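Notebook, student rotation project (T.W.).
Task set for the rotation: take a protein with a known small-molecule partner, predict the structure of the complex, and write up what can be learned from the model alone. Partner molecule chosen: pyridoxal-5'-phosphate. Sequence and SMILES entered below by T.W., checked by me.
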Amino acid sequence: VGHIGVENVLVDLIIAPEGSRTAAVYRALRAAIVDGRLPAGSRLPPTRTLAADLGLARGSVAGAYERLAAEGYLSAKVGAGTFVAFERINRTSRRAGGSLKPRPGWVFEALPTSGGAAAPTYDFRVGIPDAGLFPYDAWRRLLTAETRLKANSLGTYAEPSGHPALRAAIARYLGVSRGVSASAEEVVVTNGTQHALDLIGRVLITPGDVVAVEEPGYPPARRLFASLGAEVVGVPVDADGLVVAGLPDTCTIVYTTPSHQFPLGRAMSPARRRELLDWAGRRPVAIVEDDYDSEFRYSSRPLEPLYSLDAAGRVLYAGTFSKSLLPSLRTGFLLTPPGLRDALVAARQMGDGYGQPAVQAALARFIDDGLLARHVRRASKVYADRHRQIVGALIGMPGAGLILSAAGLHVAALTDADSTAVVREAARAGVGVDDLRAYSTGQTGFVFGFGAADPSLIAEGMALFAGVLARHI
Ligand SMILES: Cc1ncc(COP(=O)(O)O)c(C=O)c1O
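Predicted structure of the complex:
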């Protein structure tokens, strides 16, 4: 068989476990065909010869040939033998990108917390809840129940606004937990906040429109609006929240995080809330209120959301279960004023249809059975301890100016030191913390997430961090 080197492509057979010879021959030959080591037209040795050379039963080789032929990789010509029939795809020219180019602005940036990113020992990365607190057994039971034929009509298309029972459950839950009086009609279920922002952007943004975002702020929101053609303008935040006097007169959308400013962590003051709504009431602008993690509260009562205070129908409220449950549920919701509802539902229908009805139905039961409220109560206690530990370490830490905050899963501190250098050096010591510069064009500081932090390592991690920071001040 030397003339085509088949034995070279079959070296992995040596380590193939007993009983899977056919599959191993198949895989080795297919890999060689696909990557071009066995080019189209190559003649394979007869099964009997190859089997003898490899010390295999003839059936093992014949089985592999048959499968490759059935899948179009090989063709057999009577009397002439078996040939490679597959033209290798020219990967290099495909990888080079060819002539297709996306519109400007479509650049993939991996999130530091996504995918297989390894967790640091002292994990203060922002935006990750503690997955270990999630009640998996209860969730599995509900999901299983909703995946039965009689549970719902999985064979038909579902409502783009979301499962009716979930919309009703969300409306009821918000009434109790946030004092928002909303009807199920106002709720549109989404695949999380990012999806909600996409729906809003597609419905409201004409390329060239000005969209105001907080500075410092949440980069995925900024990038999304820019991808839709908006001119995104950063507006400063002060101790009361978004500086209304800094808003561009011409903007179409204002995106804000009043319950727990991302990333600085303060709540927008009642006076600033009123000022923002007064400002919005005088012009055709939509206020997008992103309330992503304020279920977790450590002292004061929550302030009334803009959505509840709004008399002019200008506010859209985006909520998510990414922090209160798990980011991987990819489930959130929008509360919308009546004038936008149909358009938002149409955008959802055109984009992805309607999400996953079984997950939505299970979540409705989860909320209605009181499991969400119970989980939030329990998790709040756990997070309160981590919050206390981190705040305790930051109070009085030389070089770090803690910004007090009483909700959510992260706290921020400002610094005069080179925060980027500190964060890099801390990472080498096993301490993962966010650089405020990642969220800001001007400010230097640190953002400490505590959702994922091991409570028994917080003090040690913060002491290590303080040591690193001390070398930079
Ligand atoms: C400001 C802000 N909004 C929303 C989210 C949640 O987004 P999603 O619901 O798309 O997971 C996060 C998560 O980190 C956030 O920081």
